[in-house]
Structure formats: structure tokens, C-alpha cells
Amino acid sequence: MTLYRPFTCEDMLKFNRVNLDPLTETYAVGFYLQYLAKWPEYFMVAESPGGDIMGYIMGKVEGRTSDDWHGHVTALSVSSEYRRIRLAAELMQHLEDVSEKKKAMFVDLFVRKSNQVAVKMYEKLGYIVYRTVLDYYSSPNGEADEDAYDMRKPTSWDVNRKSIVTEKKVILPEELN
């Protein structure tokens, strides 16, 4: 039985196996600690009965006005041996529930355009491609940078679904608010 629980500082010593996936963005320790300190309710772990970290989600709530107040998925990763058993969907549901409680208008995330497995999963969870962000992901080995999809899902607070209407379908990273 999977245990879903809040992320702790000690989990940083145990989640390397999850972060070995080449599609998982890995951050400096200070970045994880900043999220844990500022948005602890958005940082959750899926743990196996044996105590292994199966996956985690890290996010935040942000925005300048009530119309753009939203939950954001910063990282979602599931270890390869625990995929396709709905862990990612459960972790996403947790983040969406927290966002609802915080009166967020929508939840958004960025995903590599080439990561079609993830794109399809997010679409099954109700997310739409809101826009494309050109060259969002930098390539560590000198290859061309990669575009990202900015995907969104409105919450119940967005009664008129304004958060998923855009006039500009392609933007540059510097145009992100």
C-alpha cells in the first residue's frame, strides 16, 4: 500500500533514484529547501511499504491578481519501476486539491514537447496545451534547446474558464509572467 505524505528534508537523502530519470529536472538542495519552507503543502512524496520513495511532486501557488492566482507544478517524478500505477495521477490530484483550497483559478505546468507520454497523461487528467514556450528547456550537451508546452487545467473557481483562453499560442521564455 502506497503512503502519500508530506516531503521532509530527510527525503532529499533518499530521492536520488527518482531523479535519475533524464526527463526529471534536478535542482540544487537550496531550491528544494526553499519550496519546502514556502509551500510545504505543495510538496508530497509517494512512499512504498519498504520506505522507498516511489515518486514526488513539488509545486507552489503564485500570481499577481485573483485572475492569475494559480497552482504550479514545478516537478513531478515517479521512479521507473513504479510507473503506470497511477502514482503521478494521485500526486497531481493532491496538488490540485491544495490549489482549490487556496482559491487558485487554475493549475499549470511545463512539460517538454518531446515527452509525449507525459503530455498524454496530463491530457487524460484534464490539462490542455495552453501555449508553446520556445526554447524553454536548455540542452546540457550543446544540442538545440527544446520547446515546452505550458499546460493548464481550470479549477472550480474559474467559472467562465478564462484561464485557458489565450491569444498568443507561441511565446518566448522572457514573455512568461
UniProtKB/TrEMBL annotation:
Entries under SUPFAM superfamilies matching the protein: Acyl-CoA N-acyltransferases (Nat)
Domain N-acetyltransferase, chain residue ranges per copy: 2-156
Entry's EC annotation: 2.3.1.254
Keywords carried by this UniProt record: Acyltransferase, Transferase
Q: Which cellular component, as a GO term, is one annotated location?
A: NatB complex
Instruction: Check the record and name the InterPro entries matching this protein.
Output: Acyl_CoA_acyltransferase (IPR016181), GNAT_dom (IPR000182), NatB_acetyltransferase_subunit (IPR051646)
Q: Which reaction does it catalyse?
A: N-terminal L-methionyl-L-asparaginyl-[protein] + acetyl-CoA = N-terminal N(alpha)-acetyl-L-methionyl-L-asparaginyl-[protein] + CoA + H(+); N-terminal L-methionyl-L-glutamyl-[protein] + acetyl-CoA = N-terminal N(alpha)-acetyl-L-methionyl-L-glutamyl-[protein] + CoA + H(+); N-terminal L-methionyl-L-glutaminyl-[protein] + acetyl-CoA = N-terminal N(alpha)-acetyl-L-methionyl-L-glutaminyl-[protein] + CoA + H(+); N-terminal L-methionyl-L-aspartyl-[protein] + acetyl-CoA = N-terminal N(alpha)-acetyl-L-methionyl-L-aspartyl-[protein] + CoA + H(+)
Q: Which GO terms describe its biological process?
A: regulation of actin cytoskeleton organization
The UniProt GO MF terms for this protein read: protein N-terminal-methionine acetyltransferase activity; protein-N-terminal amino-acid acetyltransferase activity
Q: How does it assemble?
A: Component of the N-terminal acetyltransferase B (NatB) complex which is composed of NAA20 and NAA25.
Q: Which family does it belong to?
A: Belongs to the acetyltransferase family. ARD1 subfamily.
The record describes the protein's role as: Catalytic subunit of the NatB complex which catalyzes acetylation of the N-terminal methionine residues of peptides beginning with Met-Asp, Met-Glu, Met-Asn and Met-Gln. Proteins with cell cycle functions are overrepresented in the pool of NatB substrates. Required for maintaining the structure and function of actomyosin fibers and for proper cellular migration.
Q: Which PANTHER family match?
A: N-ALPHA-ACETYLTRANSFERASE 20 (PTHR45910)
This one is known as N-alpha-acetyltransferase 20
